[in-house]
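Lab meeting, action items carried over

1. Structure of the two-component assembly. Owner: GW. Status: complete.
Input record:
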Amino acid sequence: MVEELGTNTEGDLIINVGPQHPATHGVLHLVITLNGETIKKVEPHLGYIHRSIEKMCESLTYRQYIYVTSRMDYLSSHINNHACALIVEKGMQIEVPPRAQVIRVLMDELTRIASHELWWGSMAMDLGAFTPFFHAFREREAINEIMEETCGARLTMNYMVPGGVLDDLHPDFQRKVKEFISLYKRKISEYDEIVTGNIIFQNRMKGVGVISAADAISFGCSGPALRGSGVSCDIRKIYPYEIYDKIEFDEVLETAGDSFARYMVRIREMNQSIRIIEQLIDNIPEGDFQAKTKAVLKLPKGEFYQRVETARGEFGIFIVSEGGTNPYRIKFRSPGFSNLSALDHMARGSKIGDLVAMMGTLDLVIPDIDR
Amino acid sequence: MWSFSNIADIIHEWLNKTFNATLATLFEMVIAGVCVIGLFAVLGLILVIMERKVAAWIQIRLGPNRVGPKGMMQSMADTLKLLVKEAMTPDGADKFLFNLAPYIAMMVAMLLMAPIAFASNFMMWNLNIGVLYVSAISSVSVISILMAGWASNNKYSLLGAMRSGAQIVSYELSAGLAILSIVVLSGTLNLNEIVLSQADGWWIFKGHIPVIISFIIFIIAVTAETNRAPFDLAEAESELTAGFHTEYSGMKFALFFLAEYVNVFIVCAIGATLFLGGWMPFHIGHWEGFNHIMDFIPSSLWFFGKTFFLIFLIMWFRWTFPRLRIDQLLNLEWKYLLPIGMFNLLLVTAIAILGWYF
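Predicted assembly:
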């Protein structure tokens, strides 16, 4: 089959990485063509966990379809839910109470830190260092406990609903988050000691998987994968939603475009998220956590698009509404899918070990790519 | 005083009194063989549980803690499981080579135990070219890996085996040069005599900075030679699933696994013998009193203490460092370790000729 594509010549070694492989963190299937250890071509094959979520959403109401989106990018389910809530609010012009807005942003940023921490651990594991994984999970566990108390779930939160959030914050929330911030600040230096500053790690990351800004844009990369190439693309800055335009934080940019740049973007983004949380945690306004909404939500006839910045990049929802209780057509723009498409371009000419490092820095979550 | 060499002498005398000389020698060989197999199994079990406990300690975990006291019987249970597991041979594999490879790996590990001095004057084979023997035999282990990788009929295995071949062949040079620097200083190839040459201080203290450099090169090179992280490219689990032993299961896998751990023990034992004085207690020059007190600690304890310290060091590497890439690995050897090692050998030779060591 690969021969038909005309790139295979005599003596090439074709290897199936996946669908079951420790490096792909899910059921991604890569067909890689090798010349010795050097990669000539990477061809991702998708569809192993396609659950036709978009089609399912067409038969679900605007309250129900949120629960499905938690199962897409399971590491940033809050942010996916957030986008779902925002698009309904935009269509129906629902005013969200200020308390709910702050809670949503807090949850988004905690999710971002949790997601980046898991990414950090698993990426170090891709490079052969096992220990960082456990260090990362120690901090992530603190966030999971905070989430569990307020949302009742640790992974698929389903906490953000049209009009606000599902329930009020747990009384312990503020104290726990402050505890987490102090824990995080104590432990983040360990991250630098054990991974970032390691000479082997830097040699594995620097100058590897380079993608220029123009190429990254043309592949539709977003999030840290694009910001690592020096393109400003943070949705929170460009198309601010919720209260992001009132919060002070910097958009993290690196210019090298290699694996190390993408790595540093994520590490520095965690610090920015902490900065956002610190600004908000003592200033949660009193009031309702949910706006009064009609029992049955109906989006007016028309087309709607809402984008948010997840931990992996731009997540977009496009809804075509016929004015009914469920969408006529729904399309999700997932960051992972576009980022994965750049993998072949990055990987050509590098070694197998580097492919794993590149996949690590793209932070692929397979259920997000394959909906 | 009680020691291993006394026990060996008693057995030797009793055998020679009871049987004729030929039969006695035969029995001694059998006893030595049984000892090697026993040591092989026991070391494997100990090192596996040690690795898991060290890893757990580094990774803020508890490690195995269910089977036996503090989980110490876990590796026994694992071995039992591996013993009863079906050892499959994949379709399309070269059956003869596929099944032969793990035995060669094990055989090499066992052969390497022969010339090591485990305690004062206690070794299986007092070989006058012990160092040469160890360097020669340890090179054979690459054959078992290549064999396993080729015969498995699996592309991951093949890649792993090819990586491993390049790696072991390259790093053997550095390890050899590092070993050679001690041979130059002590003037003998016999491992027991090398230990005896350190009676007034271990080489790492006596030999100035060049020997310390040799020691560092040796540790790096043997870590690579035994395919341990950060040089575990042959079985890079995130790239090649399990490298050359991807297709192995059951006891055939266990033999590779045990051989790897026993190889770690052996290279650490060689390192301890060459640089840290082997079974020789910690002696300082002519401080008779101090040296005498140190002699009270049994020599076997000294040997195993030093060896396990080095093993701990290598385990520490594994759970701390990320893995190198194949080209970086070869660069490190051919561009840095080998030239430094060669130059260092010249320095050591100068020190040895001029008698500048303590």
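2. GW to write a short summary for the group page. Key points so far: Chain B has one domain: 86-354. The longest strand of chain B covers residues 117-119.
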